[in-house]
Amino acid sequence: MIRKNDIHGQTKVHPFADKKLKSLLNMCAMVAVRYDRELKAYYERKTAEGKAKMLVINNVRAKLLARVFVVINRKSPFVNTQKFAA
Asked: By C-alpha distance, which of 28, 26, 30, 4 is closest to 17?
């Protein structure tokens, strides 16, 4: 069986990337999957669909960054709308 890494080589972080920030985002995503109800449900739903765990973690990282940029652009604190759901 031929694997992706056999053809393209080992996956690596780009040399221009901020490796410290990338590792911090990864840890934030792992903690968010554990404690944030909305992201935990998303993670469990996607892994149940058969998606790779790291792909879903990468999507969670993107969702966290989107939240950060929304808070910055709105200049208001984050409001967890899940608390108000019926």
From this structure: 26
